[in-house]
């Protein structure tokens, strides 16, 4: 049976509202959850000192932290300044993750642009290689770069691209966003095959994932988040697949209901005999 870490993408605000990130970590544990993703999606606005404080609280509360880097990242832009700004945002995210003890920095890597998927893949690989070299020089060896599977076909982030990149670059791992994958596949998902691909490729390493339902508009699935109960995709089949596998996985709830839906998912996991680590 799977070992699971589960929590919200951001500080709790529905079941019990948290005041700030450090308080959010405390509330996560009080709710019976054991993970939280720190959201820098609009910019890295947390000071190094605040990050260290969050880390102290997380260690005391035994909450597994991850970080989501800003949305404004495009490692395949034709504009050199945009690429440099993207690398700076990634570096700041890695620095704060290191200071707080967060194990992975999640990000959307790029849009394909004029060069198409192949050129973009090479650019992403090159620039992440440079970032990994900088991390090594600074002694940051406890943070993984998590390249997220994306929902849109004009974005870098297919299963093949993210897993392929991770095989080439030590220190990079795919982040499986189940809602994004469902949308990218036009409304279908095979949880078992993706879980098995992870296990075959990375063994006992923790698989970092996101979960939310997505909207259906004008005949297609789009990257807009809905409550988990909407069932696009359904969560229960994932819980069922996890109940028959020996796999380590963290699941970050990105639903608009955050902590409320994280507890909803916890109940479903428990229905299949899965207790959080």
TrEMBL record:
Residue span(s) of domain Xylose isomerase-like TIM barrel: 26-256
InterPro entries: AP_endonuc_2 (IPR001719), AP_endonuc_F2_Zn_BS (IPR018246), Xyl_isomerase-like_sf (IPR036237), Xyl_isomerase-like_TIM-brl (IPR013022)
Hydrolase is among the record's keywords: yes
Keyword Heme found: no
EC number: 3.1.21.2
One example of a Gene Ontology biological process annotation: base-excision repair
A Gene Ontology molecular function term of the record: DNA binding
Broad class of enzyme this protein falls into: hydrolase
One Pfam family recorded for the sequence: AP_endonuc_2
Cofactor(s), by name: Zn(2+)
Keywords, ordered alphabetically: DNA damage, DNA repair, Endonuclease, Hydrolase, Metal-binding, Nuclease, Zinc
Top-level division of the source organism's lineage: Archaea
The family this protein is said to belong to: Belongs to the AP endonuclease 2 family.
Protein name, UniProt field: Endonuclease IV
Organism of origin: Thermoproteus tenax (strain ATCC 35583 / DSM 2078 / JCM 9277 / NBRC 100435 / Kra 1)
């Amino acid at each position: 049976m799977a070992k699971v870490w589960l929590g919200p993408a951001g500080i709790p605000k529905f079941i019990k509202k948290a005041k700030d990130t450090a308080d959010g970590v405390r509330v996560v544990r009080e709710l019976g959850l054991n993970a939280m993703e720190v959201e820098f999606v609009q910019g890295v606005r947390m000071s190094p000192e605040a990050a260290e404080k969050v880390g102290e609280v997380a260690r005391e509360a035994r909450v597994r932290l991850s970080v989501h880097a800003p949305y404004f990242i495009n490692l395949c832009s034709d504009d050199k300044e945009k690429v440099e700004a993207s690398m700076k945002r990634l570096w700041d995210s890695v620095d704060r993750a290191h200071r707080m003890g967060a194990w992975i920095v999640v990000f959307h890597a790029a849009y394909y642009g004029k060069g198409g998927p192949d050129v973009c893949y090479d650019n992403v690989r090159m620039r992440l290689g440079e970032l990994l070299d900088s991390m090594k020089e600074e002694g940051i060896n406890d943070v993984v770069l998590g390249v997220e599977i994306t929902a849109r076909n004009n974005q870098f982030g297919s299963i093949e691209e993210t897993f392929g990149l991770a095989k080439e670059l030590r220190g990079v791992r795919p982040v499986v966003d189940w809602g994004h994958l469902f949308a990218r596949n036009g409304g279908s998902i095979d949880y078992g095959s993706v879980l098995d691909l992870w296990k075959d490729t990375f063994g006992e390493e923790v698989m970092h994932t996101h979960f939310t339902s997505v909207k259906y508009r004008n005949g297609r699935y789009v990257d807009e988040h809905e409550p988990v109960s909407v069932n696009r995709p359904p969560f229960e089949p994932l819980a069922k697949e996890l109940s028959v596998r020996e796999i380590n996985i963290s699941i970050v709830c990105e639903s608009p209901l955050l902590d409320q839906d994280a507890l909803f998912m916890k109940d479903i996991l428990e229905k299949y005999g899965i207790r959080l680590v």
